[in-house]
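Q: Predict the assembly, please.
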Amino acid sequence: MTSRRSFLCLAGRAVVATAATSALCACGNLNWVWDEPPRRKLGARIDDGSPRVLNLAHRSGEHVEQVYKVAGTYRRDALREIEFMLRDREAEQVAVIDLRLLDVLAELQETFGPGRPIEVLSGFRSERTNAKLRQRNRNAARNSLHTRGQAVDIRIPGVDRREIFEAAAELKAGGVGLYRGESFVHVDVGPVRTWT
Ligand SMILES: [Zn+2]
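A: Predicted assembly structure:
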Protein backbone atom coordinates (compact mmCIF):
# COMPACT_ATOMS: atom_id res chain seq x y z
CA MET A 1 0.00 0.00 0.00
CA THR A 2 1.26 3.42 -0.80
CA SER A 3 1.16 6.33 1.57
CA ARG A 4 1.10 8.78 -1.30
CA ARG A 5 -2.00 10.95 -1.44
CA SER A 6 -3.34 12.40 -4.61
CA PHE A 7 -5.30 15.58 -4.78
CA LEU A 8 -8.07 16.32 -7.16
CA CYS A 9 -9.95 19.48 -7.96
CA LEU A 10 -13.61 18.79 -8.46
CA ALA A 11 -15.72 21.24 -10.41
CA GLY A 12 -13.24 23.97 -9.54
CA ARG A 13 -14.48 24.05 -6.02
CA ALA A 14 -13.99 21.20 -3.62
CA VAL A 15 -10.47 19.91 -3.42
CA VAL A 16 -10.48 16.37 -2.31
CA ALA A 17 -7.79 14.21 -0.84
CA THR A 18 -8.00 10.65 -2.02
CA ALA A 19 -6.42 8.82 0.84
CA ALA A 20 -5.19 5.30 1.21
CA THR A 21 -7.39 3.26 3.51
CA SER A 22 -4.83 3.69 6.27
CA ALA A 23 -5.90 7.32 6.38
CA LEU A 24 -8.74 6.19 8.62
CA CYS A 25 -6.33 6.22 11.53
CA ALA A 26 -3.87 8.71 10.13
CA CYS A 27 -5.73 11.92 10.61
CA GLY A 28 -2.66 13.81 11.72
CA ASN A 29 -0.57 12.56 8.78
CA LEU A 30 -2.90 13.47 5.95
CA ASN A 31 -1.24 15.95 3.71
CA TRP A 32 -3.83 18.65 3.17
CA VAL A 33 -2.58 20.62 0.23
CA TRP A 34 -5.34 22.56 -1.37
CA ASP A 35 -6.20 25.99 -2.51
CA GLU A 36 -8.90 27.03 -0.18
CA PRO A 37 -12.05 28.11 -1.95
CA PRO A 38 -13.66 31.24 -0.58
CA ARG A 39 -15.56 30.17 2.48
CA ARG A 40 -18.94 31.71 2.87
CA LYS A 41 -19.90 32.89 6.27
CA LEU A 42 -23.13 32.86 8.12
CA GLY A 43 -24.61 36.22 8.99
CA ALA A 44 -23.80 38.17 12.12
CA ARG A 45 -27.13 37.03 13.51
CA ILE A 46 -25.55 33.75 14.42
CA ASP A 47 -21.96 34.77 15.05
CA ASP A 48 -21.52 36.91 18.15
CA GLY A 49 -17.74 36.34 18.25
CA SER A 50 -17.72 33.89 21.14
CA PRO A 51 -15.59 30.72 20.75
CA ARG A 52 -17.53 28.09 18.85
CA VAL A 53 -17.12 24.43 19.62
CA LEU A 54 -18.02 21.40 17.58
CA ASN A 55 -18.34 18.06 19.26
CA LEU A 56 -18.96 15.39 16.63
CA ALA A 57 -19.15 11.62 16.86
CA HIS A 58 -19.49 8.73 14.46
CA ARG A 59 -20.84 5.28 15.26
CA SER A 60 -17.40 3.82 14.49
CA GLY A 61 -16.30 5.39 17.78
CA GLU A 62 -14.51 8.26 16.10
CA HIS A 63 -14.93 11.54 17.93
CA VAL A 64 -13.72 15.08 17.46
CA GLU A 65 -14.19 18.03 19.78
CA GLN A 66 -12.68 21.29 18.61
CA VAL A 67 -12.94 25.02 19.10
CA TYR A 68 -13.14 25.77 15.39
CA LYS A 69 -13.78 29.50 15.52
CA VAL A 70 -12.62 32.24 17.86
CA ALA A 71 -13.70 35.87 17.58
CA GLY A 72 -15.09 35.18 14.13
CA THR A 73 -11.85 33.60 12.84
CA TYR A 74 -11.90 29.98 11.75
CA ARG A 75 -9.05 27.81 13.02
CA ARG A 76 -7.49 25.90 10.16
CA ASP A 77 -6.26 22.95 12.21
CA ALA A 78 -9.65 22.44 13.76
CA LEU A 79 -11.33 22.67 10.37
CA ARG A 80 -9.07 19.96 9.01
CA GLU A 81 -10.03 17.60 11.81
CA ILE A 82 -13.70 18.37 11.38
CA GLU A 83 -13.50 17.95 7.61
CA PHE A 84 -11.77 14.65 8.14
CA MET A 85 -14.60 13.61 10.45
CA LEU A 86 -17.15 14.58 7.79
CA ARG A 87 -15.33 12.75 4.99
CA ASP A 88 -16.79 10.24 2.57
CA ARG A 89 -15.92 7.07 4.43
CA GLU A 90 -16.78 4.79 1.55
CA ALA A 91 -14.50 6.53 -0.94
CA GLU A 92 -12.06 7.74 1.73
CA GLN A 93 -12.23 11.28 0.41
CA VAL A 94 -11.97 14.44 2.44
CA ALA A 95 -13.47 17.67 1.16
CA VAL A 96 -13.83 21.27 2.16
CA ILE A 97 -17.02 21.74 4.15
CA ASP A 98 -19.01 24.94 3.86
CA LEU A 99 -18.33 27.01 6.95
CA ARG A 100 -21.96 27.99 7.22
CA LEU A 101 -22.79 24.35 7.75
CA LEU A 102 -20.35 24.17 10.65
CA ASP A 103 -21.92 27.27 12.14
CA VAL A 104 -25.35 25.69 11.89
CA LEU A 105 -24.06 22.56 13.62
CA ALA A 106 -22.47 24.68 16.34
CA GLU A 107 -25.76 26.46 16.87
CA LEU A 108 -27.56 23.14 17.27
CA GLN A 109 -24.80 22.00 19.60
CA GLU A 110 -25.38 24.98 21.84
CA THR A 111 -29.10 24.48 21.76
CA PHE A 112 -28.97 20.84 22.83
CA GLY A 113 -25.90 20.91 25.06
CA PRO A 114 -22.23 21.41 24.21
CA GLY A 115 -21.29 18.24 26.10
CA ARG A 116 -23.59 16.15 23.96
CA PRO A 117 -21.95 15.05 20.71
CA ILE A 118 -23.78 15.37 17.44
CA GLU A 119 -23.71 12.04 15.71
CA VAL A 120 -22.87 12.35 12.04
CA LEU A 121 -24.41 9.71 9.79
CA SER A 122 -23.34 11.26 6.51
CA GLY A 123 -21.34 14.36 5.65
CA PHE A 124 -19.46 14.88 2.40
CA ARG A 125 -20.25 12.36 -0.35
CA SER A 126 -18.32 11.95 -3.56
CA GLU A 127 -20.42 11.88 -6.75
CA ARG A 128 -19.72 8.19 -6.98
CA THR A 129 -20.82 7.40 -3.43
CA ASN A 130 -23.92 9.52 -3.92
CA ALA A 131 -24.77 7.68 -7.13
CA LYS A 132 -24.39 4.35 -5.36
CA LEU A 133 -26.62 5.57 -2.56
CA ARG A 134 -29.22 6.66 -5.08
CA GLN A 135 -29.41 3.13 -6.39
CA ARG A 136 -30.38 1.84 -2.96
CA ASN A 137 -32.29 4.75 -1.53
CA ARG A 138 -34.69 7.04 -3.31
CA ASN A 139 -34.16 9.72 -0.63
CA ALA A 140 -30.75 10.56 -2.04
CA ALA A 141 -30.91 13.46 -4.50
CA ARG A 142 -29.10 13.51 -7.82
CA ASN A 143 -27.39 16.84 -7.18
CA SER A 144 -27.13 16.33 -3.47
CA LEU A 145 -25.64 19.15 -1.44
CA HIS A 146 -23.70 16.39 0.32
CA THR A 147 -21.48 16.25 -2.78
CA ARG A 148 -20.59 19.92 -2.30
CA GLY A 149 -19.80 19.70 1.39
CA GLN A 150 -22.94 21.63 2.15
CA ALA A 151 -25.08 19.01 3.90
CA VAL A 152 -25.00 16.61 6.82
CA ASP A 153 -27.32 13.94 8.17
CA ILE A 154 -27.25 14.02 11.94
CA ARG A 155 -28.88 12.85 15.10
CA ILE A 156 -28.31 13.73 18.73
CA PRO A 157 -28.65 10.83 21.15
CA GLY A 158 -31.47 11.48 23.60
CA VAL A 159 -33.04 14.24 21.52
CA ASP A 160 -36.15 13.68 19.44
CA ARG A 161 -35.38 14.24 15.77
CA ARG A 162 -38.42 16.50 15.52
CA GLU A 163 -36.85 18.86 18.08
CA ILE A 164 -33.64 18.98 16.05
CA PHE A 165 -35.67 19.57 12.90
CA GLU A 166 -37.49 22.50 14.47
CA ALA A 167 -34.36 24.08 15.94
CA ALA A 168 -32.55 23.81 12.60
CA ALA A 169 -35.53 25.15 10.64
CA GLU A 170 -35.72 28.13 12.97
CA LEU A 171 -32.18 29.16 11.96
CA LYS A 172 -33.39 29.63 8.38
CA ALA A 173 -29.88 28.86 7.18
CA GLY A 174 -30.83 26.34 4.49
CA GLY A 175 -32.74 23.14 4.03
CA VAL A 176 -33.91 20.85 6.82
CA GLY A 177 -35.56 17.54 6.15
CA LEU A 178 -36.88 14.38 7.75
CA TYR A 179 -37.36 11.10 5.96
CA ARG A 180 -39.89 8.47 6.85
CA GLY A 181 -38.29 5.53 8.60
CA GLU A 182 -34.95 7.30 9.12
CA SER A 183 -33.64 8.47 12.48
CA PHE A 184 -31.58 11.38 11.19
CA VAL A 185 -32.24 14.98 10.29
CA HIS A 186 -30.82 16.28 7.02
CA VAL A 187 -29.40 19.79 7.38
CA ASP A 188 -27.94 21.80 4.51
CA VAL A 189 -27.00 25.36 3.61
CA GLY A 190 -28.77 25.44 0.27
CA PRO A 191 -32.00 27.35 -0.28
CA VAL A 192 -34.10 27.80 2.86
CA ARG A 193 -36.78 25.08 2.85
CA THR A 194 -38.12 22.25 4.96
CA TRP A 195 -39.64 18.85 4.19
CA THR A 196 -40.93 15.93 6.19
ZN1 LIG B 1 -28.78 14.40 3.77
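The chain has one domain: 38-195. Residues 38-195 form a domain with the Muramoyl-pentapeptide Carboxypeptidase; domain 2 fold (CATH 3.30.1380).
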